[in-house]
Amino acid sequence: MSTAETFLDSSELVLNMGPQHPSTHGVLRVILKLDGEKVIGTECVIGYLHRGVEKIGENRTYVMFAPYVDRMDYISAVSNGLGYCLAVEQLGGYVAPPRAQTVRVILTELNRIASHLLWLGTHALDVGAITPLFYTMREREEVLKIFENYCGARLTTHAFRIGGLQYELYDGFEDQVRVFCERMLTKLDEYEELLTGNRIWVNRLTGVGIINAADCKRYGVTGPLMRAAGVAADLRKLQPYSGYEQYDFDIPTRVNGDSFDRYVIRMEEIRQSVRILRQAVERIPTGPVMAKVAKVLKPAIGEAYVSVEAPKGELGYFIVSDGSLHPYRMRVRPPSFLNLQALTEMCKGALVADVVAIIGTLDIVLGEVDR
Amino acid sequence: MSKLKQLFRTFFLVDLLEGLWVTFRNQHPKHIYTEQYPSERPQVAERYRGAPRLNNNPENNETLCISCNLCAIACPENLIVVGWERNPETKRKDLIQFTYDVSRCMFCGLCEDACPVDALELTQDFELASYTREGQVWDRQMLEEGPYPVKYKS
Fold it and tell me: Which of A133, A162, A251, B89 is the most exposed place for a label (fewest CB within 10 A)?
């Protein structure tokens, strides 16, 4: 930027936002180039939470690595586990039994709701509405209780194993899910009452952080951000996995691609998840939950790329096997990392206060960005 | 008309009052979720994966562990060390040492799954704090007896 472009000859200011800034949802550092209050350039500095997950994967056996993927996107650990298990199953030629597939769908959809709820609470907190955080945490607690009852952990669940499930369903699982679905829909109306009509909420989000469909494709942005820009891209429909083709649900889309649209999309996605849950919980087949998997897992030489629709976008696992106990190469395609790249595009011409709203609406988890 | 309505809503702060009505409704005591933690301990799930325990046979109080070392092999973090020596009379392996480094444990439950005799188990105890790093390395006695969390008086 040349100085001639600045307003009233005020000098440019370079401001570091983060890594300790509370609204960056972790340890993201954004270098903002400011002209007064206006943002004329942003640059993200990442890597503060780098743990070398991919390298760890190359030094562990296939079964051992499964708990580590939960720690990338710790808000939606179940989706991460599903993607990894599907990738290894494709590599080894295993297919999970129907009962396991249905339970997987139920747990991932519950996790999608939990992830969106946490996003809603923290995003509203960033923008200035403190109340929704307490309410969304309360509903998320119900999901975490189901996880705790099912697999014994609340956050880093390690719920799925390669070839199916380790645990059989506990008594009362179906009822608990049904009660949660009922409760969730009424509570969603309550959130809408708090936020959708709220003038401050609407004014803070409408027209902020616009990204169009072409830019989404250019940056590899997926998930609710892309659907808010008008592209009905959802891997659950485009390449169904784990039996998603049996369920009847819609992909919500909007046209503007601004922050408010992304809010509407995520609220609608919770409704659709509840719809899937209600169908799935009525048709859990009987039978085994685990396929016959070799005790010592040595997949044949080859490679597999499997992507699933995580709450934040397309989550892909690329695994190369050289026929030994450990993967030869492990690569994760995290949705948060690619969605974060669009920040520069979205922040052009925004105000500093809008940057907080835009980072919030991206729904990033830094554990997944840095891996 | 809609402009007039908008002006009415703006002037009388209708959307603010709508939001306040939601918060007012949620003040009802049945919506209280707060747990009074140290005085009231939460009931964790039956399958909760917490502190490890090495089970003894309740009849003769001998350890169930057969020193097969499968848990140590299954552990992703290599934090279990099993020591044994061959008993010349019974030709079986006798457990002489079992250490478990809780500070590195991520409670994934793979050791529990690997155990063929249900000797190693992750229990419902979740209070694992200690003052030293060495206190996190649990020996066989600690694993058999379990942690001693301080009981606070309510």
Answer: B89
